[in-house]
Amino acid sequence: MSDGSDDADGGESDVEQMSAHEAAAVDGADGADARDFWAAAVADEIEARNPDEPIVIKGGVSPSGVAHLGNFNEIMRGYFVAAVLRERGYEVRQVFTSDDRDPLRKLPRKLADVDGDIVGLGDVDAGALGRNLGTPYTDIPDPFGESESYAAHFAALLKADADRLDVPVEMLSNTELYEDGTFEDVVAHVLEHADEAREVLSAYQSKVDEDYVPFNPICGECGKITETVTEVDLDARTVEYVCTDMTVGDETIEGCGHEGTATLREGKLPWRFEWPAQWQVLGVDFEPFGKDHAEGSWPSGEDIARNVLEIEPPVPMVYEWFTLNGEALSSSQGNIVTVVEMLDLLEPEVLRYFFALNPRKARDLDISRLDQLVDDFDRFERAYFGDVDDESVTAFAERAYPFVVDEIREDRVRLPYTFAAVLGMTDDRDLRIEMARNEGYIDDDTPEWAIEEALERVDRARAWAVREDNAYNYRIQDALPEVDFDENVEAALDELADFVAAGNDGEAIQGEMYETARRNDIEVGDFFEAGYLLFFDQPQGPRLGEFLGELDTEFVVARLRRDG
RNA sequence: GGGCCGGUAGCUCAGUUCGGCAGAGCGUCUGGCUUUUAACCAGACGGUCGCGCGUUCAAAUCGCGUCCGGCCCGCCA
């Protein structure tokens, strides 16, 4: 526990630990800390319970076809609370349970392959999945034939995403917790107190009757989860069962009729008991969950924890679901987005920022307006460094920013996202830098690492512009676009071509464009538009003169003369 | 039918815990930078805080009612 092996900065002294705790106490006393960042308020609540260390923060989902961004609430919301507690000097263990002893109940329409790319059911062995309806995810082969099981495949995806966002989380398999006996005593306890269990649960679920047994064995014959327990032998720690049909929605998963005996490790608790059982065996102090649990599983779980398991439930936190492009996340409708996809478009810290925002608000992730999210992040970052005159943003940034970035470095350069997208018009690195320099984002004092990081945004913003095919999807046209100009515009273009051919630099070209337009009696705007059409096949573009100054002179001259 | 959460400027959101002048960024418009693009600078426009009633000297904030959206109250997670 205190061997320091996972302690990043090693020799932290007890004195410093003390002061961290004291500082936290001061923060808690005036309340400023908690008001400004939800994770700090949650941390206060956990702290108030004087938890044993390590403090355990849990999340978890049942494996499904795709690990989408919504699932990531289970990891990111806990991460921020863990980070605040660590800052206060506590040892924190963040775990994520893959609830993988759950049976596959229906076929997913979409799956994510090992790289996180989404594929349809038709691209995998769907028959093998269909035959395994009702079987625990850990006993179903990986449809991609790579991992040990369907469950392992799914867990690996989530773990890979957590790594991409640099969140240290320990993945736990529910099945393993059953098989290695971690759950066994709780299962025995629940079966021993089956009357109380039934009584408590029946307040939440009307279907619970006298025959209800809170344990579902796995059929020794067909391997499916069964629901019919006929006898419980507490001394032998076994149950007798019949493998009967299971109803899922309006579908029926057929049982094989086998009658057998199962140990308490060969089955699972129903979810309503399994969740509190996890709290007990893992010693969970905090758990965020989606609003779907808020009025169902949570109240019953809390009750079961106190009155059946006789433990104190963790500090809860409900998070709102977010929508994608205004629509509910839905894998069957195909309205999903993954961490991998998002990281093609955003830097990891921007995505982390998204999850640092108030969990109580339903939030829409509008891909077409990602520039707005990135602008918000940039402002949030500047606020941390005291450059924003807005108390509430600054207070939030002061608390949350250190947990959003991997490293606090004040002299970072952030190109505005739309400008970064515009720079994506060229793949020429030097040209990108030159244009950023022209606009004042980079100067001679900018360190090389900052330039490097700034340019990382260009590829992402470019990917966004292409994906959305929006106004920032500029690309230098290799071939002459179809154009049709007035005579005086053509004359002006020829004059400008001569000016460029004479070897003038970008700044001069920019100035000359105005002169040329005036000389030929055309609106400056029309002349610029002509230039944009020639080079981008679009009526808008970057600051043109300086841009042309960066390109190959022969190419520019030929294009201005409409020669290719 | 019962319950929970949300609804604040065109957009994205602070502010609601604990009542004290309705806020920010973006967008838009106007002007500026010898310069109509990305950006930058100055300014302006923009509000029935979903709606109604109540409490109060004072309500986005508290209470009651109501509308809209999501979720839960079967199974499952």
UniProtKB/TrEMBL annotation:
- Keywords carried by this UniProt record: Aminoacyl-tRNA synthetase, ATP-binding, Cytoplasm, Ligase, Nucleotide-binding, Protein biosynthesis
Stated EC number for the protein is 6.1.1.6
Stretches the record annotates as Disordered: 1-28
Q: Name one Pfam family in it.
A: tRNA-synt_1f
Mark out the compositionally biased spans (Acidic residues). 1-15
Q: Where are the transmembrane segments?
A: none
InterPro entries per UniProt: aa-tRNA-synth_I_codon-bd_sub2 (IPR020751), aa_tRNA-synth_I_cd-bd_sf (IPR008925), Lys-tRNA-ligase (IPR002904), Lys-tRNA-ligase_SC_fold (IPR042078), Rossmann-like_a/b/a_fold (IPR014729)
As annotated in the record, motif 'KMSKS' region runs over 328-332
Location in or out of the cell:
Cytoplasm
Q: Which GO terms describe its biological process?
A: lysyl-tRNA aminoacylation
MF terms (GO), sorted A to Z: ATP binding; lysine-tRNA ligase activity; tRNA binding
Q: Name one GO cellular component term.
A: cytoplasm
Catalytic reaction(s) noted: tRNA(Lys) + L-lysine + ATP = L-lysyl-tRNA(Lys) + AMP + diphosphate
Q: Which Gene3D superfamilies match?
A: 1.10.10.350, 1.10.10.770, HUPs, Lysine tRNA ligase, stem contact fold domain
The entry assigns this protein to a family as follows:
Belongs to the class-I aminoacyl-tRNA synthetase family.
The protein's name: Lysine--tRNA ligase
**Organism expressing this protein natively:** Halobellus clavatus
Gene encoding the protein: lysS
